[in-house]
Amino acid sequence: MQENNKLKNIVAQFVDSADKADIKPLGKGHINDSYKVEVDGNEYVLQRVNHDIFKNVEELQNNIMRVTTHIRKKLTEANVTDIDRKVLTLTPAKDGKLYYQDEDGNYWRMMDFIKDSMSYEEINPELAYRAGLAFGDFQKMLADLPDGPLFETIPNFHNIESRLETFRDSVRSNKVGRLLEVNDLVKEIEARAEEMCKAEVMHREGKLVKRTNHCDTKVNNILFDKDENVLCVVDLDTVMPGFVLSDFGDFIRTGANTGAEDDKNLDNVGVDLAIFEGYTKGYLENAASFLTETEIENLAFGAKLLTYMQTVRFLTDYIDGDTYYKIAYGNHNLVRSLAQFKLLQSLEDNFDKMQEIVLANADKYKG
Ligand code: GN1
Ligand code: MG
């Protein structure tokens, strides 16, 4: 964590009276550092953007500006009230840029804090339904984003073929000597590799489209108000072109897990079908009208794919010696990999039921 004076100096690049600012750490992200800032009665979120991971912060911030401007326009046209709590508002630096680079080369940005909001690590079927409506609506609002596709802030981010290539490189170089310990899991990953690449294959064959996706639909990236209504979707760093099955899948991976993403007790981990059903219903209520048959048929597969992908990503980082994700203890990435793999097995065991739920809701809402 940065020391307070340094942080105040950064805040001063964005707003006045920064010397009086109250600054506290915020949130549970694995990538950026976030702080809540209160100054002169106004509340902001200050973030250090992880520049090792997001190589082009200027384009990243441009993406967020394009996305939030477009959503704001849609909300205004629909006469939605309280718009400032329903879409993020970036706070530009005093020089007009959407970020500030400090003398150590770190990139910083500020946005308005959304008042009286909360996020959850665990939810219930009703909240999952509301979250499904929200992500369906998010994709729908961005379907006619002007000026062409968004910049790819992390190239091949949700491309499992590319993730597997990186994984195999890490296995081959075994940099920190952890391979022996994870051999069984490596075999489990390889056994499923071909099946998991099918979305990329369908895309090349012209059967599966890309749309503007959120690409980090973790359950804790939705803000709710105190009455548990959805306010908005946050963490827009990875909004870029992708498969809808991947946004669907990442929510199920995080929201419909009976355990934690890094649960040490694997007995806790498994898919909660009631939450799966709630989310599916909400999502398809808003999205069935614009999805193709192939997209719908592969939503449940998306839950397996994203859980598999996360297993591969955590395990790659463990084998590499923990260079990507923030960790809280020595074998955190291994614990995460095992918990994600356990969830994958549960998704495989329940796949037919999930597929049935998707198809029933698609029938209902396709009209
Ligand atoms: C990261 O920063 P956070 O926690 O929202 C990651 C996601 C992973 C997630 C795993 C840029 O998201 O892709 O799914 O951790 N973001 C990036 O919990 O890699
Ligand atoms: Mg996040």
Describe what this molecule looks like in 3D.
The chain has 2 domains: 2-112, Phosphorylase Kinase, domain 1, CATH 3.30.200.20; 125-366, Aminoglycoside 3'-phosphotransferase, Chain: A, domain 2 (Alpha-Beta Complex). Helices cover 46% and strands 11% of the residues. The strands form 3 sheets. Strands 1, 2, 3, 4, 5 and 6 form a 6-stranded antiparallel beta sheet that branches. Strands 7-10 form a two-stranded antiparallel sheet. The chain has 12 helices and 10 strands. It is of the alpha+beta class and 367 residues long. Bound molecules: 2-acetamido-2-deoxy-1-O-phosphono-alpha-D-glucopyranose and magnesium ion. Magnesium ion binds at residues 29, 216, 218, 221, 235.
